Amino acid sequence: MGKLQHRLEYGLYRAVETAALYLPESVLPGMADLLATLAFSALRVRRSVSLANLAAAFPGMSTEEHRALCRAAYRHFCRAMLEFFRLQRWRPEQLNRRVQIARPELFRQCLVEHPGGVVLVSGHLGNWEPALAYIARFVRPVTAVMRRLNNPGVDARMVAVRRRWGTELIYSRHALRGGLRALWQGRVLAMLADQDAGPGGIFVPFLGRPASTAAGPAWLALKSGAPLLFAACLRQPKGTFRLELVPIADHHSDRDASRALEAVTRRYTAILEDFVQRYPEQYFWLHRRWKTRPPTTDP
User: Fold this and answer.
1) What is the 3-state secondary structure of 78-137?
2) Domain locations in the chain?
């Protein structure tokens, strides 16, 4: 049954990918709306999880406002998926034109002129993929950490798309060793750190609740001495993206290792929270972000 399910999932993935590649780009927003309606209304994919997350994050909104925002987030996710497929057909000049740098002077200072490795941390906000492709193609080599998908066929296809622009991939179980190697080689190390990290994560505030958060980006930056930047690649009108960078300042100043690790993790999570509050329709609400609860302090 598992293999059959994988074949069916892979077949559906390839069908949507092929449609995204060969249909006119003007059709993609309507296609994303259709897929979002199917996922939200018919299949109800993680709908209860998404609505519960939104209700907790924005308690001042009404139920109808939560539902409207949830639908918008589903549309964004489907649009991002189609854009990821479409990225295979973009030419370098298209990529250069569609990714706009918010603060070019900061971008040059941190990514172009800096001689050593750099840690980029972000979350499932906006569309991370065009930013990685842009940096790998025009700035410097990129190593991205990704979670190995349960479906090997889908996993292989996603790896192939990312490698098309020169991004090196390492799986999350090898993130620390492989990440250090990438930084020592002077590469940009890109990581997402906004999914539930289980009992081994660090609990920091996120949208009003303690959330188990991956400390890998903080550990790698502290261990290597590399600069740490938060990156957000936000969708703009007319199919463009704005890449914003926020330096995590003074992240090497605390000499206590465990305290520094928590402080840095708290900082990039707070920056992500600020972006999510400003662009909630571009955030991935389907994940059980607060699945792991902090250990009780009761006797």
Assistant:
1) HHHHHHHHHHHHCCHHHHHHHEEECCHHHHHHHHHCCCCCEEEEECCECCHHHHHHHHHH
2) 1-89, 91-281
